[in-house]
Each structure stands twice: as C-alpha cells, then as structure tokens.
Amino acid sequence: MPELPEVETVVRSLAERVSGQAIREASFTSKRVTRQGFAATSKALRGAVIQKMERRGKHILIHLDRGLLHIHLGMTGKLLWNAETTPYTRAVIKLANAILVYDDVRQFGRVEFYSTIPKNIAELGPEPLDIGFEEFEKRLHARGLRVKALLLDQRFLAGVGNIYADEALFAAGIHPSTPANRLSRKRARTLYDSIRRILELAISLRGSSISDYVDGSGARGEFQTLHQVYGRTGLPCARCGQPIRRIVIAQRGTHFCRACQRL
Ligand SMILES: [Zn+2]
User: Fold this and answer.
1) For 72-101, how does the pLDDT look when each residue is reduced to its tens digit (9 = 90+)?
2) What is the pLDDT of residues 192-213, one digit of tens each?
3) Beta-carbon neighbours within 5 Å of ion ligand 1
C-alpha cells in the first residue's frame, strides 16, 4: 500500500501541473472507489478550479475553489498524468490540456468529492516530518499498545504504514511488540529519529515500488532496494546474519530481527 513517501512522490510529480487548472469534466466507473454517486460527483467537479494539491498522511487532497477532491490510493491505485485509459481505469478527470487518470486494479482506493474536509482527514494525527520530539514522546507514552500497532494508527502519526513502521523499528533496534509506554526517553528519541530519517531517504528515492506503485508519470520508486526487513522473511539480517522473522501484529505481517530487536 502506498504510504507517506509514495503519496508524497505522486503529489510532487503532479502538484505544479494541476494547480490553477479548471476541471472540464470528470467521469467515474467504480461504485467501490466513488461511493457518492457518479452523476452528483461529476456535477460537483465540473468547472471547479484546482487551487492546490497536497498530501496529508497517505491521502491526496486536491483543494478546489469549491470543496475538495479526495484521493486515497488504497492498495493498487495509480494517479497518472495523460495516461491511456485501461480496463482498470476508475476515474478520468479532464483538464484544459491534459487528463488525470485514476487506475485501481483491486479498487480499495477512493476518489470522492467533499464540500468540506471529511472526518477521517480531520482526525489524522500529526505528520511525522513536522512533529517535534516532545510531542512525539508524549503521544508515544500515552498508549500501552504494542509500538508497531501504534505506528500503524493514523491518529497517532499520519502516513506511516507497514513498510516504514517495520523499517523504522529495525533501524531503531526496537522489537515491534514492545509496549509504547515502556520505551525509555533515549529509545523514543532513536525511534523518532529513525522514522524521520527513513521517510526522508524513501522520499529522496521516490518511494518503494513493491507491486503496483508508480508516480504520476508512471515511474517506479527505488527505496525497496534498501529494505532491511520488510518482505525479507527468512533472508539473513544485514546487521547480524540471523534470519528475518515474520509475526502478525494488528493483523499485519511484521518483519524484524530477533537478535537486533530484543524484547
Ligand atoms: Zn539482526
């Protein structure tokens, strides 16, 4: 699933191109992706002018002169500039000289119009690259949840998902089952620094392309080549040589090294 670095990369590849453009026409074909009715959504978007495109957590927000076009890439969503439509095209947004095509094989994504910011966006936690350490530590110590589960909670921090939670915990040498409120200040600091360093590095490499993810021009990311634990079950740990283990936390496969991340 695209996480903060992937969504940031998509937004960076498109934001300047779409800014200031009027939507001429918008069409939709998936009731799973666009739940508010195709005709009503098209009508709301027709003629609207795009003021700004930005990322918030794993969400793409296209601010209009009236309301908001919200896009979540789900598992397999792609938002593409001037691409050909395919059998998996679920939305087409026509601009003056270009089209934005939303493709989504598995249809876990969303493309919806809202007149005001929806509740799930309003309730997102702080951005990991913006939050200060004091606030991060306060939020971390407020919860007894296992730290991996807490990192996946979008109300705790917005944008970290399975890949970057596993990679950050490995970098920090923290076992994913450690209760968040038992992390010392020093280890909380290491985790805070690791999350930020890994997200920044992943953004600089345009995200991780595991399966479907590409940016707005169709280009793949490269951070997957630097994954230390995610998707590496049974392979040797780069630090100690022990095999990477996989356990399930919060219903998500969790990858870690038992020797480098002790409970
Ligand atoms: Zn190891």
Assistant:
1) 999 999 999 999 999 999 999 999 989 999
2) 999 999 999 999 999 999 878 9
3) 237, 239-240, 257, 259-260
CA of 199 to the centre of ligand 1 (A): 21
Rounded distance from Cα 73 to ligand 1 centre (Å): 33
57 Cα to the center of ligand 1, angstroms:
30
Structural domains of the chain in order of their starting residue, each with its CATH number: 4-122 (3.20.190.10), 133-256 (1.10.8.50)
Eight-class DSSP state of 243: B
Cα 257 to ligand 1 centroid, rounded to whole Å:
5
What separation in Å is there between the alpha carbon of 262 and the centre of ligand 1? 10
Q: Which residues are catalytic?
A: 2-3, 58, 252
Between 41-45, 208-212, 242-246, 255-259, the lowest mean confidence (pLDDT) is in 208-212
pLDDT (tens digit per residue) in 106-139? 999 999 999 999 999 999 999 999 999 999 999 9
